Amino acid sequence: MLRIVPLFCLAVLSLDTVMAQNKWKVPEDVASIPTYVKVPAFQQVTAIPGLPRVLIVGDSISMYYSAQVRELLRGKANVYLIPDNARSTLYGLKNIDAWLGDGNWAVIHLNWGLHDIATWDGHPQVSITDYEANLQQLVKKLKETGARLIWGSTTPVPAGSKNREERDVLAYNAAAKKSYGRESHSH
Fold it and tell me: 86 near 57, Cβ under 8 Å?
């Protein structure tokens, strides 16, 4: 079941116990980017045996909330962030299998959108039609893991953005909600 809830509600979710080891590490090309290194999200997780595993898959904003989620769930879950910026849904489709690793996740929190709506030459990086279709494929792939899925809506446009519009955030969030509704029940 896909749940639409605020990200920080993860802290109060009742999670099933899942044991597994994390199979990926921060790629060298990502670890060497100064702005990524300053963000504590890509820290290696020292898993506590017996706790469920939570995976955060998201665009660049996820690098900033992951550390807080990890702290909120300390002692309740092992929280991992994919070792990359999930960027657009198109990029997500190309990389989702690697990010899922062994696929043994209790909960997967997902969000895409700001990179999809970014315009280049007056056109979005990913059209709203393609965004919706891409999300359907991604949700299907994530559901195959058996994890509880939690969607985080696209965040507001960052201040000073020159290639994004807030109206696109609203339209893409509506498309995402519609897309998720086709794939599963939403709450």
Answer: yes
Chain-centre distance for alpha carbon 55: 8
* Structural domain count, the chain: 1
Q: Specify whether the CB–CB gap between 185 and 3 falls below 8 A.
A: no
For residues 36-53, one letter each, b for 16 or more C-beta atoms within 10 angstroms of the residue's C-beta and e for the rest, the string is beebebbeeeeeeeebbb
Question: Which residue, 148, 155, 153, 154, is CA-closest to 185?
Answer: 148
Residue 109 phi, psi (nearest 5) = -100, 130
How many Cβ atoms sit within 10 Å of the Cβ of residue 167?
A: 10
Per the structure block, which two tokens stand in for 7?
């990200």
CA distance 59 to 44: 19
Question: Whose CA is closest to 18, among 107, 110, 96?
Answer: 107
Tens place of pLDDT per residue across the chain (187 aa): 444 444 434 433 333 322 232 344 555 655 555 554 455 566 778 899 999 999 999 998 888 888 889 999 999 999 999 988 999 999 999 999 999 999 899 999 999 999 999 998 889 999 999 999 999 999 999 999 999 999 999 988 888 888 999 999 999 999 999 877 654 433 3
- Domain CATH code at residue 144: 3.40.50.1110
Quote the domain boundaries for residue 47: 2-11+18-183
